[in-house]
Every structure is written in C-alpha cells, then in structure tokens.
Write a structure and sequence with these properties.
By secondary structure, this protein is an alpha/beta fold. Helix content is about 30%, strand content about 20%. Strands 3, 4, 5 and 6 form a four-stranded parallel β-sheet that branches. Strands 1-2 form a two-stranded antiparallel sheet. The longest helix has 16 residues, at about 80-95.
Amino acid sequence: MDKEVNKILLNPIKLGDLNLRNRFVMAPLTRMRAANNLGIPNEMHVKYYSERAKETGFVITECAAPTQNGNSFPGACGIWSKEQVEGWKKVCKAVHDEGGIIFLQMFHPLW
C-alpha cells in the first residue's frame, strides 16, 4: 500500500463526537447465531464483535429487529425483549473493553 494512503487509513480521525482509531469500518454481516429463535445475542456474538473491534475505527452489527413481527429469519437477533437487550449490553461491553465503538443495525422487513 502506498505510504500516503497507509498514513491516511491508519491514522486516528475525529468523526463528529467520535474519536476513531483509524478509518476502517467493519461492515454488517448476517451471522444468524442467536439460539432457539429467541433473538438473544450470546457468547459467540461477544467474541465475534470484540475480536473485530480491536483493529477497526468502528463496528456495525448484524441486523436486529425492534419487534417480533419484524424478525424475518431464524437466528437473527432482536432488541424487543429484556433478554435481547441484556445480550447486546454484553456485546457492547466487550467491544468497549477493547477500546472499540459499535453501532447496532436495525431492520424491519415487511411480510
């Protein structure tokens, strides 16, 4: 990689109120790892996102439905129940412990 491009990509940058460690962003990927169709993020989510937070400017999560009616496939996470929110809190804590920044991608497909 060209030294100037490398410098631009790897140097910290301020984005609004956020201080990013670099300009790399982990794009959202559908993981389908929530167990029992309950939509609760689990230890696999904690490990996955915290590992990726170590080297990126910020992480965007997989899609999470705000309502049960908006959840369109098995294994997708949600944010409509207390248990789901608690699962995401564990993910966020792990990412923050690595010095990372995380955003939740919300979706609500129509049936």
